[in-house]
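Loading example: each entry is read as two labelled lines plus one structure line.
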Amino acid sequence: MTAGVESTRHGGLTPLLEVRHLVKHFVRTRGLWRPPTVVKAVDDVSFTIAEGEMFGLVGESGSGKSTTGRCILRLVEPTAGEVLFRGENVLEFPRARMRQARRDMQIVFQDPYSSLDPRMRAGAIVEEPLIIHRLGSKAERRARVAELFGLVGLDPAHLSRYPHEFSGGQRQRIGIARALALNPALIVADEPVSALDVSIQAQVVRLMLELRERLRLTYLFIAHDLRLVENICHRVAVMYLGRIVEMGETHALFAHPRHPYTRALLSAVPVLDPDAPRRRLGFDPASFDPAAPLRQVDPAHWAAV
Amino acid sequence: MTAPLLDVQHLSVVFDGSPSSVIAVNDIGFQIAAGETLGLVGESGSGKSVTAFSILRLVQPPGRITAGRVLFEGRDLLALPEGDMRQIRGARISLIFQEPMTALNPVMRIGDQIAEALTVHGQTTRAEAWSRAVELVEAVHIPDARRRVRDYPHQLSGGMRQRVMIAIALACRPALVIADEPTTALDVTIQAQVLDLLRELRARYNLALLLITHDFGVIAEMADRVAVMYRGALVEEGPVRQILRSPAHEYTRGLLAAVPGAAGPKGQTRGQTPLQNDCRG
């Protein structure tokens, strides 16, 4: 695994985030007399994200991709591993220091319906991180919120509206504005457009790409939509049952998938052409070693084969 | 030319409200021939699900059908007495929902739920219905069917539950199946399996399929013809190749362009050319 981590530092770009051997086990107790069961949600995951990069983390339900994102921000405490942000291990930070660090690392959630407090006005939702971190005077905060509204394409005249008065796409813009309030460097976007209609998806994705340029943001983009990831991410990692089974530059990985799971996953994506040959690849979990380490198969491409 | 299996003419549905009512479906018409698959595409709120519910007369107040005819096997479903309608619902026309967990009864064995579809329509005795249920569970490729029929929905995975939904829908050998986003809640590999299953059963039973979806990939894989809905109206209808390759309506073009990774006419990716205006504000 270490080899994969080292060699993903590519192109002379400094890594902003380095995840090393991240592990998260959920222990489920089953009563007094039965042994607890352990779910290895994240099982030795390592990857590096360069400054300014859009890094895709894909997988199906239960693959551990969301848990990985949450562990990085310590919204879920990892069982083991290191999360280096600008070279410092955030997992060792005490509470106050971690709170500081969260200014630089923010999350955008999937569901803009349940992730915004329905009883708070949109302006207050975006302002809240500034109050928590005691930034600016009241007037300065207000100006900053108006600026953020403009940045994400919302009308500052709607500051005093409640979340239910916005459409799904607009709500996700509020979620993004809130995440941007503290000027973060890294955004963990956990399925940020999955709940939206396809035309609205395209608008929110375009906004995220624009913001990356303007604010020099780095994204960990967690998604299950492979077509979307193929289009917007520089590099991508495929997770299966808590492990990264394949990782590499997006075009290389999509053009020449090496792991049997990645191949099956890509072959399952419906193609827009009715006459395209449909060769669905079956997938037999027994056909590969689940503990196989990632090894380099091409210059910018690793697979656990 | 033989009459189509389903012929929807000038259908309108209004949701009453104050101060203003909403026209959810606005004077739409389409046909489906026996064995044919029509894909009905549109975004949230376009009226595609309301259209499906109208065909089965399942629109709940404040919604009401204000105009139109729904000719099925030569009879106008909108003019039938409720008793006759019940003979059609679930038997000649059946429905597959998006979310199998909420559509199945959580406290009933799946075998009983499939058998119920048969006994409600008075086609069989209970014992026969149970053995038919086992056959149907086999037909949708759930392994170990004899044991699985005794399971409750929570014991099955999402893909398995959707297979059970399909088994219930097929129990009475319908001529038309309406599938409302049948794979939207599923992972992509499971979606592929369910689509393969639908394709196999469609051929085996010569089913007509009204497939409601927002995913043009699913449309490309399954549909013979496509109808596109926008704000309650049908903006475009035609053979699947024509709609996907040379859409005539601006809305269809925008919708297709918004699909990530759709190869453009010059081989460019279209992912970064979304709809011109934010339709819903």
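Residues 42 and 242 of chain A are 4 Å apart (CA to CA).
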